[in-house]
């Protein structure tokens, strides 16, 4: 074994949840170390839009403006989110005039870019250090502390900490080492996330839209100022990963607006990533001195943008409670409140909303959409749409 390093909080995982937790702690003067198994932040195509309560946390951390400057051009501030049929008929929409007066601007920015901004902010604090190529492999609790074993290119190291924040994603090692289960279910469909260049706007699409369809339900949204778009669609359950990848063109043919048949040279694909969709949560987000946050604690369908939005709210809550206990004389039981409240928020809000959004896209007959409670509310008045938008804040 190599040297022993001490810190107040050890964060595991340099995803946005781990980095944001670390940033809040670093700002409060807490000694924090983050270990990440990869050589740098992960680049896989995932989140791109964040719900209202997450934007409150991003503003509080001082990273929202930068995220907007990386991810958005001025026209992107004109807020419009549509639910459409496969032939681009609007079933319901939120528009700029529905915006809650005084609310923050939207934040649209790829998860990887957001994580890079957080990493850069963290680097300004001497009391915070990020160790890449450091993979957590064991945790043991000793009196008043935890000792983590991490695998590094130079061999194993031990890092001791008063508390540990497990922000190490859906396959969380921390969760497994704490013997916590990940209860729930996995949806049968694949979710295929593609970053693609295609003139969606010229063919009548807006910045963001969901397509309601039993086989081709999907999200199509612009990701960045270079006109890169994300197309995240559902794919048949019985296909192998290879078959999913071989079927990309025929899915684009079904989903994309514009001339049919769709010429293969009409678009450029930058990346295609098939995922499984899970609705799962650990039974507890605390065990002793260790905590779970973000995907390590819970997972949900990405249709609805609830996953990282919830994780970002976890990060704010966990950091606040740790600061309370480590700096403000609060009792350790405050940390139980973190675990209980955030789990309740997942159960009551994230799980329900993300799953029902997915079912809405998959199971609604577009011919009868106007009878669906969701579209009925959405198509009633600005006041009702504002109330719908306001309800998002209870996740925070
Ligand atoms: C296609 C897709 C689109 C999505 N879109 C949205 C969206 O628009 N809005 C939204 O809110 N959510 C969205 N999500 C969900 C969002 O991507 C996740 O909720 C988010 O990645 C969770 O962040 P995290 O920091 O908890 O975990 P992760 O981003 O998974 O980060 C975990 C980190 O921990 C590291 N790690 C793992 N094990 C160890 C170990 N043993 N030691 C050290 N490090 C370790 C990993 O390498 C990784 O860097 C989407 C998901 C998908 C798949």
UniProtKB/TrEMBL annotation:
Keyword Oxidoreductase: yes
Record key words, sorted: FAD, Flavoprotein, Oxidoreductase
Record domain FAD-binding: where: 6-351
Domain of life: Eukaryota
UniProt KW Magnesium keyword: no
InterPro entries the UniProt entry points to: FAD-bd, FAD/NAD-bd_sf, PheA/TfdB_FAD_monoxygenase
Molecular function per GO: 3-(3-hydroxyphenyl)propionate hydroxylase activity; FAD binding
Record GO biological process: 3-(3-hydroxy)phenylpropionate catabolic process
PANTHER family: 3-(3-HYDROXY-PHENYL)PROPIONATE/3-HYDROXYCINNAMIC ACID HYDROXYLASE, FAD-BINDING MONOOXYGENASE
Name this polypeptide is given: FAD-binding domain-containing protein
